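**Polypeptide and fold**
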Amino acid sequence: SHDFIEAALLRRAGWGVRFDTDIKASFEQTPPSLTESMIRDRRWCQGNLQHITFLFAGGFALPTRLTLFSGLMSYLSAVFWLSLIIIGLLIAIQASVVGHEYFAHPSLFPTWPVFDAERALRLFVISISILLAPKVFGLLTAMLDFSRVRQFGGPVLLTLSTVFEIIMSALYAPILMVSQFGVVFSVFRGKDIGWKPQSRDDGALSWKSAALAHSGHTIFGLIIAGIALQISKELFYWLSPITAGLILSIPLSWISGGTGRATIFDKVGLLRTPAEKNPDHIVVNTGEELDRIPSFETIPALSRLTANKPLYSWHTAQLENPPGPAPVFHAPRITAEWKMRHVQNFTQLEAWLEPAETMALLSSPHLIDQINKISR
């Protein structure tokens, strides 16, 4: 979110700003699962909605305002989409339960119900075309370059991968729509979740975790599908692309994370990118360097600090001049200090401490000194 604001301010100051799409060996890891994508959406939505005031700020060029507006609509569109579905469903319920009143006003001629099927179909075709155009253009661009299409496994595998991606995107889209709908309203209510770091593991979820995260989506999809089926089969089939994704949200979320669950796609060659077949040397070298770094995951932080004298000296030196006054009341620091006074040994202290309390100890020179005495 901040990138576009920085670009907008640079443009307003007279600098030129452009997108460089040909940068090589530049990588940013995407969320490893659907649930992690939803968490990132929460942060990005909050950032983009804060740009509303910038739309009307002075000095910004039109392309800047359009870019900011596009960022807003990437999340507000979910609100409009779900609202359209709900309103359409309510109108269908009203028509089936109440019926049309042909003589609502005193008249010799009835007021016939109007449904413009031609315009509705035209709107549907335009909407689908806008959604699929980038995918189709991307496919054609690769197909026209023999060396590039070969990197994707050839024209057949690339075409199958594109079709499969379109189907899966259609199933995931309703889940993200409902999630983003709730996110927008939570932001407008002033709820702030901060900016937590993104998960860097493979995103594997258990069935229980997936069920807890998406039980609401599943129930919502079943309700819509049930209401639509009661009204008419045609409405049920028309809404099935949306309800199917919601009803299947739990298995779709489960399969979205975990490198082992994508083995079948790798064997078949679907959804494979050139970087997966021939990784860039930077990625390979980074992996090799990370493998050389010793793992400290099994060693608690306090044990590692007290056992390493150079590290202990360096860490305590960083705390000699704290950036600001210590808080008057900080619950983790107080509870950590209480536990320090009542433990029998250092091992018991590490077992008692919560992560926030450990951080409080590591941030206090006075408490660290007491830790060092306990560990002796």
